[in-house]
Each structure stands twice: as structure tokens, then as C-alpha cells.
Amino acid sequence: MSKSTAEGEPIHVEDADHLDELIAENAVVLVDYYADWCGPCKMLEPTVEEIAAETEAVVLKVDIDELQALAQDRGIRSVPTLEFYANGEQAERLIGVQDKSNLVEIIDDLS
């Protein structure tokens, strides 16, 4: 399993290729689509960071303002949107602030 940052920290996605590469390289991936101006995104951020630190999932952060074309290609219409991938395949998509226990349960099911 490879991570391009310190163990247990969210990885900030640079572009679509970077996102695809990270999804392909890791067994379980949580992608957090967010925006700096988004209040619910800020509420969700500590939960996402805890999940990165406490679970096997690789957590990716996608700034929809920085990567507008990527967000558009992925059909992201509102933030926060969370996508879960297992072995390169999208397994789940949730929109809005989520309860940590629900997110951990999904990751456990995919692991």
C-alpha cells in the first residue's frame, strides 16, 4: 500500500490523473469533495481527518474550486460529497455532513 504523504493524513489531489492513480493503487479510498467556502465541509473536516488516522482507508481531498473540471466530470453538484472506492471501483456516494460511525462502517464493509 503506498501513500504519497505521511501515514494517516488526507492526501490533497492535484488533478484527475493523480486521483485515478490513488484510487487504483489503494484497496479502500474515501474521496472528500469540498470547498473552502462550504460550512458543512468545515464541519465534516475533523471527521475526515480522524478517519484518515484511524482506518485503513486512504483519504483524498478534492477542492472543487481548484479542480472544477474534475468535479464536473465526476458529477459533483454539491459539497461535501464523499465517494468510497474499493479496489478501484466506486462503491458508495454520500452527500452532506455524515456521522463518523456511518463512514467507518462503510469502510469496514469495504475492507
From TrEMBL:
Record keywords: Transport included? Answer: yes
Alphabetized InterPro entries for the sequence: Thioredoxin, Thioredoxin-like_sf, Thioredoxin_CS, Thioredoxin_domain
The residues annotated as site (Deprotonates C-terminal active site Cys) are D32
An annotated GO cellular component of this protein is: cytoplasm
Domain (Thioredoxin): give its ranges. Answer: 1-111
Q: Name one GO molecular function term.
A: protein-disulfide reductase activity
| Superkingdom classification of source | Archaea
Q: Name one Pfam family in it.
A: Thioredoxin
Q: Which SUPFAM superfamilies match?
A: Thioredoxin-like (SSF52833)
Positions of disulphide bridges: C38-C41
**Protein keywords:** Disulfide bond, Electron transport, Redox-active center, Transport
Could you confirm whether the keyword Transport appears in this record?
Answer: yes
Which residues does the UniProt site feature Contributes to redox potential value point to? G39, P40
Annotated active site: C38 (nucleophile), C41 (nucleophile)
The family database entries (NCBIfam families) matched by this protein are listed as: thioredoxin
Indicate what this protein is called per its UniProt record: Thioredoxin
What is the originating organism of this protein? Answer: Haloplanus rubicundus
Q: Tell me the classification of the organism that encodes this protein.
A: Archaea, Methanobacteriati, Methanobacteriota, Stenosarchaea group, Halobacteria
